Amino acid sequence: MHTEGVKFNPNNQSEFIRELRKRVNLYFKSNNISRFGNSNMVIKTIFMLLLYLVPYFLVVFNIFDNNLVVLLLWVIMGTGMAGIGLSIMHDANHDVYSKNKKTNKSLGYLINLVGGSYINWRIQHNVLHHSFTNIHNHDEDLDSGGLMRFSEHQKKYKAHRFQKYYAWFLYGLLTVSWSLKKDFIQLRRYHKMDLLKTQGITYQKAYINLVIVKALYFLQILVIPLIFANQQWWLTLLFYFVMHYVCGLILSTIFQAAHVVNETSFPLPDDSGNIENNWAVHQLHTTANFAENNRILSWYVGGLNFQIEHHLFPNICHVHYRKISKIVRETAQEFQLPYYSNPTFFGALKSHYQLLAKLGTQ
Known about the structure:
With 362 residues, the protein is an all-alpha fold. The chain has one domain. It is 61% helix and 2% strand. It has a two-stranded parallel ribbon. It is globular and about 65 Å long.
């Protein structure tokens, strides 16, 4: 992975993003609304935190004895974990939850509560993924360590012919990997890549921070339930794994439905590091929306089914994506640019499956 040398073409249809920004800015100005979060975000924050914390305390205080009921509580916790990540932490770490920087930072730290790393996430997502979307060797979200092949530019192994089947199982392991080892490996890599400076922190301080965060997380999510919950220790470990599996599966499929589908492209820079399109046009080619009319799904996933709007305007809170999507779609069509959108979430996953199959045999 490297971050240097990629240059987008500023002269390629640059009038598109200028016109689009003008129209979107006019929408906020004429309606006299802020681009930050509103009361809906506060309600959602309370809901997602309760979805995670209420089952936790029910488990720890042994309110239910039935193991199947307790398993269901851990499943709900996994759903809450994903909800916190998608609907609260994500906007906060893009600094768009609130005008107040301290509020954004505090809520951004919620990723630590669910086993991740505030520092690593901001680098992987804000710096790498948003800057170099779907570019091999630059967008880390495409890198599975060779287990899966998400672009035609990645090395193909014989096992990849079966990835359309086994990928779905591996997706559930995403946050298990994060919580146990990935964050430590990632932090060392970001130190070597000199990316920690983007977060204004030294490697030593970041490493100490990570150790403390992980210790507190495992104390809260595993040690306390092992001590106080009535279930046998191995059941608690199993339920903990199920919680993470549910969370990982949700997060993985939401990302894949937005970027790794048949419709999107995976452009490479030329020998001089130049990308054919400008940054905004590149986002349209590498990103897809899905299930735009599914308001319940959209509410839960933090508007990330409007992924195009998120990538073009990461400085706008997701509660506004549905409204500005009409402006984005119409402007893209005016400039004869793509605007990919799958009508349903299932349709997007089917498209992802077809791409996995193609890349596994290509």
